[in-house]
Amino acid sequence: MLRHQVEQLVLEAPELWSDLDGGRIFITGASGFFGCWLLETLLWAKQRLALEVEVVALTRAAGRFSARVPHLASQVALWEGDVQDFPFPDGAFSHILHGAAEVGSGQGIVAGGQRVLELAQRSGAHRCLLTSSGAVYGPASGFLSEDQALAPTTDYGRAKLELEEAWGQRAISARCFAFIGPYLSLQSGLAAADFLREALAGRPLKIQGNGLTRRSYLYAGELAIWLWTLLLRGKPGRSYNVGSMQAVTVQKLAEQIAAEAGGLSVEVLGSEAGSDYLPDTSRAQKELGLIQRISLPESVARTWKWFRSIPSQPT
To answer: Does 253 map to a domain?
Structure first.
């Protein structure tokens, strides 16, 4: 099922992948949600389009990564180490993709990003992508655009903004919002992950707030294509929001997942609303032609089907 999806995504943009032919790519966060999808799409493109490209993937535990996703690990050069202090591989890299989403505290996030930046400078990489976050904007109502003031209120958001400033003109910054799809960690604490975990266990889906807070979700396969497009076609020194503009309340998301699980109940436990978290992706649409093709109901259905098809997840 997943292989068919990846093939479809790759073949929708065949001209994109030729930019990687003859290249050498270094990817951080390879074993995470973003990293697995980046590898799924790239390795399929490499095979399907006969690309000559070497991939070096940083992972903290090569053995666990190989055991969990052997079809990915066996096709890349695994480079073991922590993103904050990993030893630098020898040789030059044409592309650097810093996809490590979480590396501990705000200080750890900055240290990891600066370590990867040093590798980019030493290795002569001419195209670099930094995965940042919508958290750099801080609380706001409505859709957030790249042109508005940045006022992060969390250590995470401040660390991501500090990294954007440190990388400057060397990198394209992908300000990532919310996503759903295979490989999503069900222990991440994110709303979609929590609902999926409870649904897989057959338990009611519980909402701590009033359920009216709005989110939007881009399917993980499309996320990967967006990130590759930013790396290869984005303007260095420029930031782009990555996500969906199809807003949905948290309650509606829970109800869609509950329906996929056969009609589980949804319980709204609180009365307070949280802050909306919605990206305006007009810049990515206008400059790079990136649009959302997979709707949220279809994304939920694909995600549920995948999780149901694999060995039991922690509950």
So the answer is: no
